[in-house]
Write a structure and sequence with these properties.
By secondary structure, this protein is α/β, with parallel strands linked by helices. Helix content is 30%, strand content 18%. Strands 1, 4, 5, 14, 15 and 16 form a six-stranded mixed beta sheet that branches. A four-stranded mixed beta sheet has the order 6-7-12-13, with no helix packed on it. Strands 2-3 form a two-stranded antiparallel ribbon. It is globular.
Length: 323
């Protein structure tokens, strides 16, 4: 799908920060012409999660959608686009659910800002929901790879047999309503990442106010020894939990993206601080823009090792400055 010989600007989770996105595109040398942001030599690539949480979700979607339709950008699916499709898709009979994304208060809270901003534009929202099916779950351009949260080579190889370009259909969304099904595992792993259950039934409350009994884990560590070695999220583990040793079975269950594999770009993980590679072949471009962090891009040319100098970002202002 993507020409590996071209130059791309890979952009992390936007989450409705339309003004910040325009600022970043301008910083990267894109100019708005005929209502579309364009660059003479480069294309933008968005790593998903355009919707939810932010103040200008509809505007952000129009920017990204119009760039894609004009051949100026690509976009892959994030877990929030999947959640939106699951919100409106009836579950399979016998799954024990009414919708793929159950209409619980917690799920309602996550999507409510998007629904509110489209309340006066229902046809617009229907068109975007249909467009979400055009967003692939992954891109493998040979020299580099893109996925919203985690590259699982075995799952992707199986997924390709049914959907060679990574674009799924409504039946596959519906199939994911069955717990532990192949469809459910694909969406959970590729769009949400790997995780591990906290011991002893513990739960932690994240900075988003949600209580979780699972924590996100790294999928690239060579020889982790403790829970603290594999945690990969803004909210740290309790100190006593972080020191706990991993069991042999827990180590065996961890996924590993090898250092000799192609460059991999992900979003999703709410990082902070100065943008930089995680490893020479792995970068996360989500730096919490909607929480007044940074909206981050990586300027990819023909390199095979990530260059820390090629991260570009815009610091997001506090509410009074808009997003």
């Amino acid at each position: 799908m993507l020409d590996p010989s071209r130059s791309y600007d890979l952009i992390g989770d936007v989450h409705g920060c339309a003004r910040t996105l325009e600022h970043l595109l301008d910083t990267l040398g894109y100019r708005r012409q005929g209502g579309v942001w364009r660059h003479a030599q480069r294309q933008a690539v968005f790593l998903g999660d355009i919707i939810d949480r932010g103040p200008r979700i509809r505007e952000a979607l129009h920017i990204v959608h119009d760039m894609v339709e004009a051949g100026q950008a690509w976009c892959i699916m994030g877990n929030h686009e999947f959640n939106a499709l699951g919100w409106i898709t009836p579950a399979l009979p016998g799954s024990g659910k009414d919708y793929v994304r159950e209409h619980t208060p917690r799920h309602q809270r996550l999507i409510q800002e998007t629904l509110d901003q489209f309340a006066q534009h229902p046809r617009d929202w229907e068109d975007f929901l249909e467009w979400f099916y055009q967003l692939p779950l992954f891109v493998d351009a040979g020299r580099f790879r893109l996925v919203h949260a985690c590259w699982d080579g075995d799952l992707i190889a199986s997924l390709r047999q049914a959907f060679p370009d990574g674009r799924v259909d409504p039946h596959f969304i519906q199939a994911s309503s069955v717990a532990a099904s192949f469809a459910a595992r694909c969406f959970d792993r590729l769009l949400r990442g790997t995780d591990m259950r906290l011991p002893g039934g513990q739960a932690i409350v994240g900075r988003d106010g949600l209580s979780r009994s699972l924590f996100r884990t790294k999928f690239w560590e060579d020889d982790p020894q403790t829970y603290g070695d594999v945690v990969f999220q803004p909210d740290g583990l309790p100190e006593d939990v972080a020191r706990l040793p991993l069991s042999p079975s827990e180590k065996q269950a961890l996924l590993r993206y090898r250092p000799d594999e192609p460059l991999l770009f992900v979003g999703h993980y709410w990082r902070s601080g100065r943008p930089a590679p995680i490893r020479p072949n792995l970068a996360c471009l989500d730096y919490s823009a909607v929480l007044y962090g940074k909206l981050v891009a990586y300027r990819l040319d023909d390199e095979t090792v990530l260059d820390p100098a090629k991260f570009v970002w815009v610091d997001v202002g506090r509410p009074e400055h808009g997003q």
